Amino acid sequence: MAALDAALTTCRACPRLVAWRELVATEKRAAFADETYWGRPVPGLGPADAPLVVVGLAPAAHGANRTGRMFTGDRSGDFLFAGLYDLGLVNQPASRSVDDGLTLHGVRMTAPVHCAPPANKPTPDERHTCAHWLAAEFTLMMPTMRSIVALGAIGWAAALQALRDSGWQIARPAPKFGHGTEVRLVSPRDRSVRLFGCYHPSQQNTFTGRLTPAMLTEVFGRAAQAAGL
Ligand code: SF4
User: Fold this and answer.
1) Fewest beta carbons within 10 Å, which of 15, 77, 94, 227?
2) 126 SS3 class
């Protein structure tokens, strides 16, 4: 996994996203003017043998694109890590920087698009171009992976595609995303993984009450139990 993560951080396959991540890293937000932005693809975070995998959307321009750590440096991440902490899945309630001592317990966090997109919206072509990274990550995690939480419909579709790309036969039409939805997927070798849907902890969802802390921990609690955590 370390080799995969290292290779990922040099990827320049999406011209629009490469230009955006580097422009943001140069111009910076005033509040972070004295920081050096990461400005590169953000690799997955957490142990390679984690039984629970979280699939988000993409790094935030001034969040993970700044700190270089998945879900770190923005309010979405704050909301998510607080929920994981409540469930004992991480050793501290917030993730601030790559050297803050954070340790995930049995959880790996990743994304279907590893570079910050303008307006947080990757194009279908960019999602397609980045998909092989998630498939490779899933392949490495397959021996221990027991459950997946997809944060939003894009993460859900990407997780299903990554399983397909790893040789799993996913029924068509594919199961649909919904908050709280749980699907059991079975591999040709009779291994099973449970896929859970959870609204993305974006401010659009958390500020409006569409996603509450209780809703998030309810889904993650079930996913953790299914993963044996
Ligand atoms: Fe590479 Fe993915 Fe970033 Fe595109 S989004 S440049 S495929 S890492």
Assistant:
1) 15
2) helix
Per-residue pLDDT of the chain (229 residues; tens, 9 = 90+): 999 999 999 999 999 999 999 999 999 999 999 999 999 999 999 999 999 999 999 999 999 999 999 999 999 999 999 999 999 999 999 999 999 999 999 999 999 999 999 999 999 999 999 999 999 999 999 999 999 999 999 999 999 999 998 888 888 899 999 999 999 998 877 889 999 999 999 999 999 999 999 999 999 999 999 999 9
Q: What is the CATH number of the domain that holds 157?
A: 3.40.470.10
C-alpha 109/C-alpha 137 separation (Å) is: 11
- Evaluate whether 72 touches 85 at the Cβ level (below 8 Å): no
Which of 24, 55, 130 has the most ligand 1 atoms within 8 A of CB, as the residue to mutate? Answer: 130
Closest CA to 198 of 224, 218, 184, 175: 218
Number of domains present in the structure of the chain: 1
Residue indicated by tokens 């993460």: 155
Pick from 229, 134, 167, 153: nearest CA to 195: 153
The residue range of the domain holding 44 is 2-226
Ligand 1, CB cutoff 6 Å, lining residues: 8, 11-14, 17-18, 41, 113-115, 126, 129-130, 133
